[in-house]
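To: structure desk
From: M.T.
Subject: fold request, one chain
Message: Could you run this one when you get a chance? Sequence is below, nothing fancy, just the single chain.
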Amino acid sequence: MSAELAYVSDAHDTLSPANFRRLSEFIHGYSGIKMPPAKKTMLEGRLRRRLRERRMGSFDEYCAFLFQQGGIDAEAIHLIDVVTTNKTDFFREPAHFDFLVNKALPGFQKEGRRQVQVWSSACSIGAEPYTIAMLMDDYCREHRGLDYSIFATDLCTQVLGEALIGIYPAAMIEPVPIALRERHVLVPRDGSQKVVRMAPHLRSKLSFARQNLMDAKYAAPRDLDMIFCRNLLIYFDKPTQAAVLKRLCAHLRPGGYLFLGHSETIVGVELPVRTVSGTVFQRI
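Reply: Done. Structure tokens follow.
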């Protein structure tokens, strides 16, 4: 019987308690993502793709490969790729972008800054950094003497590849105002192709890299003007949230801004920041 057929025959295989515990402990230690027992079924569903790709017939075989046969080093990135959640939209949580255009950028301009550096630290497929780029590009065109660059990172290599290419389903850009679409989004001449691509002048302003926010040191530049870390901390426990926030703040210059998701909080974490608007914080 082929490995593929063996897999099909075991399609309803489940993780043993011991294997689930080992996987959840590894995932949490590597990525900070919580994997409580309630997520066991979700984890099984996502790992089945890896079993198919590796032509393995059961979770027991896969876990033996990881933890007994030394496969974890080679498999870690692929394992984390299937585990990570990559929910994202253009102009998600628009109040942050209103603050960017109406408060942050005018403030930087008054300070006499010539170059604004931004880090989108959990960029997923790129909707967040490209949204930022559209707004900053328009602002810089209207206010000569100001330029920008965006460093975008994610733990998942698959979504980084999609972000780098900058091609999206046409329906995904519906939240983007029409005027911005006309300036920054390329539409195929063939109307049957239901995809769009970010314009070259935007793509040239972004650089992408893989970054695990659990690492003790980050590859991002220091003295950044803005850091976006939105809707990621909710997957971490409190100690991990605190450690990540402290490391992020170390890359933010005094006067720079940290943007978190609207459901996230810094309560109970001592950070060198003050609240300026909702979940926008300024480095002091």
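Reply (cont.): Confidence is low (pLDDT under 50) at residues 1-9. Let me know if you need anything else for the meeting.
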